[in-house]
Specification:
The protein has 465 residues and is α/β, with parallel strands linked by helices. Helix content is 48%, strand content 15%. It contains 15 helices and 15 strands. It has a 4-stranded parallel β-sheet with strand order 4-3-9-10, with helices on both faces. A 4-stranded antiparallel β-sheet has the order 5-6-7-8. Strands 12-11-13 form a 3-stranded mixed β-sheet, covered by helices on one side. A hairpin with a 2-residue loop joins strand 11 and strand 12. Helix 2 crosses helix 3, helix 4 crosses helix 6 and helix 12 runs antiparallel to helix 13. The protein binds one RNA strand of 75 nucleotides through helix 1, helix 5, strand 9, helix 7 and strand 12.
RNA sequence: GGCGCCAUAGCCAAGUGGUAAGGCGAAGGUCUGCAAAACCUUUAUUCCCCAGUUCGAAUCUGGGUGGCGCCUCCA
């Protein structure tokens, strides 16, 4: 497995800390609202990372947090007249629903910031003890200047940062680039007891605390969006390494943005679609198809046209799946011809190509290309005169690849009785060469969402995607 | 101002030193009663531009141009 490490800015061979195991931490959502389709990109792509690692034989521990306490949470909760806890509970539930719909599996651990206050306090105390943090009127700040490696992930220079820093809201800080570890209680805000009085954690510290809790002081892979590189991940490094004195993360992975009209989709710009809304109109697998068609680090434009293209590509996979099922019934269990053997070898080669592409920094676009090579090969080389084993090989490889991609999850279903009846009537009308009647029935089936195909082996009816 | 990313056909997208994968779309064709699906043919002598290195560059170097992002909450 090769991974592009944002810190070294090059691809590196993945060497886990513990052989055969991989500890992965991904920054999760702030649960103050539904997440949008741009937020879904890292969820889908790093879920793919997890699947690939597992396929390669690693024992993966995958952790993704919920940020359930911050300014936005408090604002939203106040606006809705509910507690921050209630708000978090609600949108964590919504997260599971949308992520699940998108085929994103739940992480091994989904820790909540508010349930790790003792761990957070412990790290802050360690940082204070080491002189890397200081308290001011109940607030605690990290002293970035005290950590020599500050800026190593983002390539930022301390002095440039200080000069370029925007107006500092909080004048208690020693330096504009210092950041809050603990915020003193303000009226109307939830708070927890701490050695520095009542208050709540800053944003960055939760990820240090929770990754340490579930993955240890050093973790293999840490992922998130490119917009988290600075300051969030830079700050995590400072906190974690400052506290433990050990390397925090070996491989940093950052996904590119999902754009709209070439601009980053974001809540603040208002140019976003929630996953909830998108799934009203499009199939979840179409969303996956779109995401998988581009490399995770590249920018990806989201548009209706892109969704239509992804949908059409996906339909090609379903068509083949259905066609293979059809062939499995028609073909015989006979001796393999030379052509069958060559075909089976070809499917294995395609699968190898598929795996190799994914092992190369999660190149899902190339892997998709490998999958479609197999699709083409099956479409051109298989027929009812093929040996069943050859068809089975195509079926197996198709499913190995699409299972990993989280595609073709909709199983073939028996036709509803009404559909079956119409289909039979149409078959009869065709036999009678009553084209008008048969076309009318085909139209009726189409309106019900079923496609009718006349093949040499008879009429085939399938559900339209 | 600082730190980065991106630029490949009508649309999307791999490829990062050896002569342009794949998908969508479009046109024509085979098949079909007509369709659908699939298949066949066509759709980039060329990879934003200009120099340079090299036997050889979309790929490396330098310089431009255009777009985007982070430096404030953001996946």
């Amino acid at each position: 497995m090769r991974i592009y490490n944002s810190q070294s800015r090059q691809k590196e061979t993945f060497v886990p800390i513990r052989e055969g195991q991989a500890g992965v931490y991904c920054c999760g959502p702030t649960v103050y609202d539904f997440f949008h389709i741009g937020n879904a990109r890292p969820f889908i792509m790093f879920d793919l990372l997890r699947r690939v690692l597992i396929r390669q034989g690693y024992q993966v521990t995958f952790v993704q947090n919920f940020t359930d306490i911050d300014d936005k949470m408090i604002q939203r909760a106040n606006r809705e007249g509910i507690s921050v806890k209630e708000l978090g509970d609600r949108f964590i539930k919504e997260y599971y629903q949308d992520a699940g719909a998108l085929g994103v599996k739940p992480a091994d651990v989904h820790p909540r910031a508010t349930e790790h206050i003792p761990q957070i306090i412990k790290i802050i105390q360690e940082l204070i003890d080491k002189g890397l943090a200081y308290e001011r009127d109940g607030d605690v700040y990290y002293s970035a200047a005290g950590f020599p490696g500050y800026g190593k992930l983002s390539g930022q220079d301390m002095e440039e940062l200080e000069e370029g820093a925007r107006v500092s809201v909080d004048e208690d800080k020693r330096s504009p680039i210092d950041f809050a570890l603990w915020k003193a209680e303000k009226p109307g805000e939830p708070s927890w007891d701490s050695p520095w009085g009542k208050g709540r954690p800053g944003w960055h510290i939760e990820c240090s605390a929770m990754s340490m809790e579930y993955l240890g002081d050093s973790i293999d892979i840490h992922c998130g969006g490119q917009d988290l590189i600075f300051p969030h991940h830079e700050n995590e490094i400072a906190q974690s390494e400052g506290a433990t004195g050990k390397p925090f993360v070996n491989y940093w992975m950052h996904n590119g943005f999902l754009n709209i009209n070439s601009e980053k989709m974001s809540k603040s710009k208002g140019n976003f679609f929630t996953v909830r809304d998108i799934l009203e109109e499009y199939d979840a697998e179409t969303v996956r198809m779109l995401m998988l068609s581009a490399h995770y680090r590249s920018p990806l434009n989201f548009s209706r046209e892109m969704m239509e293209q992804a949908h059409a590509s996906l339909a090609r996979l379903y068509t083949l799946r259905d066609h293979l099922a059809f062939l499995l019934e028609k073909t015989e269990d006979k001796r393999l011809s030379a052509a069958d053997e060559a075909f089976i070898q070809g499917t294995q080669d395609s699968l190898k190509h598929f795996d190799d592409a994914l092992a190369d920094d999660l190149n899902s676009a190339e892997a998709m290309g490998a999958l479609f090579e197999m699709v083409y090969s099956a479409n051109t080389q298989l027929s009812e005169s093929s040996a069943r084993a050859a068809v089975q090989a195509a079926w197996d490889v198709l499913h190995e690849a699409t299972d990993l991609f989280g595609l073709l999850t909709k199983k073939q279903e028996a036709l509803p009785e009404a559909v079956q009846k119409l289909a039979e009537e149409r078959a009869q009308a065709r036999k009678n060469k009553d084209w008008q009647q048969s076309d009318a029935l085909r139209k009726q089936l189409s309106d019900l969402g079923y496609v009718v195909e006349d093949t040499p082996q008879g009429q085939k009816v399938r559900k339209a995607l």
